């Protein structure tokens, strides 16, 4: 009996080693447990030098920002604007990545020239929608901005770029989203800073918007100092800004490899000691002060609070919190984010229930319709992106959800590996009013009278490009392990592979030869989750099975099973005065015949 409808991708590493000493590899820092060494090997990192570089990233591994296309031209123009006392407007996006990117650039500009005339602008998600807005650019120019710098948006904004030029403002675009397929359609701007521009020699193309903004801030700082080495106060600021870049990197779900891994690792480490008032306020309001904040807490605690501001209110408040707010004002905003996040969760649950019912009624969850495309009045455009993710998790197919209002449908989409959302939308461009994004996520708008035609074409594209196998989620297994190997020390060794996220998931191991040592115990409200006791030999361990409550009757004491688990250290016992214990999370289960 397979517990979930997963395709198990079998381990590529060998069986458990005979002794822990077999895990030590030349060139790898410190002695690794055999389990950690097998996981590294399964991920192609078994070579000593490669493994050492992965386990111990250094700030020196960050690529030279001058390699980034357009960055020198952009930094020089900003510095010229500062010297000429011109007003600079930073135009951000309303998600975590955009907010953090705007704050990064704002801080470094004011650090270089504390009396700089700099303003930050973030569009309203519902009233203005995603990306550069021609009317807003004209307004910024009318109010005196001679230089406008976009962050996390703009690389497809051809018409708005022309509006900025006609209004008398130089426009610098910094972005990371997918380029137009026809590079001749790139916007006409003073400079475009993007790691994947045509002809780019930049070594890594997967930076997020905050990562690109950090590279521009770094180059601006070195240019202002006239040296690759900056003064100590500037260095401290850049390290603090690395924390904001880490928030954007993790929340935007870019691959946590190469320099994204460096940004995330060192940025997370900076969260406990940051001098940024707004960041400290956010952490305090989320009850994480003094904690070792990891990628999971960014993804599930801090990120949703920042996103809630743009989804349920106005993201300019989050930008204010991160830039100009006093401590008192920052705490006020951070507490308001808590309230908005609670409101967002309630709205999300209601929309998700309705979307599930509509998708199943329309036959969009069957094999012959391999995408979900729905529009409904009353859905909040600020929430439906999250609901898209929930439906992708549930049905494992591309999902687009849009709000229908006054003849226009606008919303968001999320995708699965193997289906580029941006490319599919580009194939429907003649039916769309606007769209933008990347492989896995996008925003779009379509006239209500063209929605049905768009939905049918998009679903036809999904049917053509996806096989039924694509609709079955795969569960990657790093290696086999024995229950005896899951000691606290061995699991802590696995944590050295973090931060975990896209392209670097938390280790997943298969346990064989184990039995359920007792009946499953319900956890959480209404028994939504389960706690399983598993045993092998004399060893018994508790495993947490999130959202497995409905399977309780299928699991019986004494069953011989194979489990795929994510090894973790639980601090629950430590909080109660005991010792931390290994408490894996169940990913899947199969009963042995």
> Roughly how many Å apart are the termini?
9 Å
Give the overall pLDDT as a whole number: 91
CATH topology of the largest domain: inorganic pyrophosphatase (n-terminal core)
What is the architecture of the largest domain at the second tier of CATH? Alpha-Beta Complex
Helical stretch tally:
18
Outline of this structure?
The protein is of the alpha/beta class.
Can you characterise this structure?
This protein has 593 residues and is α/β, with parallel strands linked by helices. It folds into three domains: 151 residues, Nucleic acid-binding proteins (OB fold (Dihydrolipoamide Acetyltransferase, E2P), Beta Barrel); 275 residues, inorganic pyrophosphatase (n-terminal core) (Alpha-Beta Complex); 110 residues, Diaminopimelate Epimerase, Chain A, domain 1. The protein is 39% helix and 18% strand. Strands 13, 14, 15, 16, 17, 18 and 21 form a seven-stranded mixed sheet that branches. The chain has a five-stranded parallel sheet with strand order 3-2-4-5-6, sandwiched between helices. α3 packs across α7. The protein is globular and about 75 Å long. It starts with 6 loop residues before the first strand and ends with a strand.
Name a few traits of the molecule:
single chain; 593 residues; alpha/beta; OB fold (Dihydrolipoamide Acetyltransferase, E2P); inorganic pyrophosphatase (n-terminal core); Diaminopimelate Epimerase, Chain A, domain 1; five-stranded parallel β-sheet
């Amino acid at each position: 009996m397979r517990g979930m409808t997963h395709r198990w991708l079998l381990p590529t590493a060998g069986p458990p080693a005979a002794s822990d000493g077999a895990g030590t590899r030349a060139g790898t820092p410190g002695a690794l447990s055999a389990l950690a060494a097998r996981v590294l090997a399964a991920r192609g990192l078994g070579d000593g030098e490669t493994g050492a570089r992965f386990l111990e990233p250094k700030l020196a591994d960050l690529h030279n920002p001058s390699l980034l296309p357009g960055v020198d031209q952009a930094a020089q123009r900003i510095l010229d604007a500062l010297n000429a006392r011109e007003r600079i407007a930073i135009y951000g996006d309303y998600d975590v990545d955009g907010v953090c990117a705007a704050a990064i650039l704002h801080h470094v500009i004011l650090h270089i020239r504390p009396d700089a005339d700099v303003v930050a602008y973030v569009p309203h998600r519902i009233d203005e929608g995603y990306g550069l807005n021609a009317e807003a650019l004209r307004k910024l120019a009318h109010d005196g901005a001679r230089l406008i710098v976009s962050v996390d948006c703009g690389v497809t904004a051809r018409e708005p770029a022309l509006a900025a030029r006609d209004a008398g403002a130089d426009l610098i675009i910094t972005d990371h989203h997918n380029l137009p397929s026809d590079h001749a359609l790139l916007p006409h701007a003073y400079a475009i800073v993007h790691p994947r521009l045509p002809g780019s020699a930049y070594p890594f193309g997967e930076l997020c918007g905050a990562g690109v903004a950090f590279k521009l801030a770094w180059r601006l700082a070195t240019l202002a100092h006239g040296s690759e080495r900056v003064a100590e106060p500037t260095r401290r600021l850049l390290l603090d800004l690395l924390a904001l870049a880490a928030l954007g990197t993790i929340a935007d779900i870019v691959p946590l490899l190469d320099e994204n891994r460096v940004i995330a690792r060192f940025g997370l480490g900076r969260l406990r000691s940051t001098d940024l008032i707004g960041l400290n306020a956010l952490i305090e309001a989320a009850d994480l002060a003094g904690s070792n904040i990891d990628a999971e807490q960014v993804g599930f605690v801090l990120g949703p609070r920042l996103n809630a501001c743009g989804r349920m209110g106005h993201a300019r408040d989050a930008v204010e919190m991160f830039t100009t707010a006093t401590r008192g004002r920052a705490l006020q905003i951070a507490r308001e984010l808590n309230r908005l996040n609670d409101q967002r969760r309630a709205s999300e649950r209601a929309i998700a229930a309705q979307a599930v019912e509509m998708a199943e009624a329309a036959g969009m969850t069957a094999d012959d319709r391999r995408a979900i495309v729905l529009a409904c009045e009353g859905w909040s455009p600020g929430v439906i992106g999250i609901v898209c993710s929930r439906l992708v998790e549930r049905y494992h197919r591309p999902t687009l959800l849009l709000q229908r209002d006054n003849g226009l449908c606008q919303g968001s989409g999320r995708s699965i590996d193997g289906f580029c959302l941006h490319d599919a939308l580009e194939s429907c461009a003649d039916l769309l009013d606007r769209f933008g994004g990347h492989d896995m996520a996008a925003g779009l708008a379509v006239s209500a009278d063209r929605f049905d035609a768009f939905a049918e074409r998009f679903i036809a594209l999904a049917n053509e490009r996806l096989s039924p196998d694509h609709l079955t989620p795969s569960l990657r297994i790093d290696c086999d392990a024995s229950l005896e190997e899951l000691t606290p020390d061995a699991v802590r060794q696995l944590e050295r592979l973090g931060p975990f996220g896209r392209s670097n998931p938390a280790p997943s191991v298969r346990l064989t030869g184990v039995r359920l040592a007792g009946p499953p115990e319900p956890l959480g409200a209404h028994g939504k989750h389960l706690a399983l006791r598993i045993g092998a030999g004399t060893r018994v361990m508790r495993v947490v099975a999130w959202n497995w409550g409905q399977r309780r009757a299928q699991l019986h004491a004494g069953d011989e099973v194979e489990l795929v688990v994510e090894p973790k250290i639980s601090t629950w016992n430590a909080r109660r005065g005991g010792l931390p214990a290994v408490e894996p999370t169940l990913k899947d289960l199969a009963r042995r015949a």
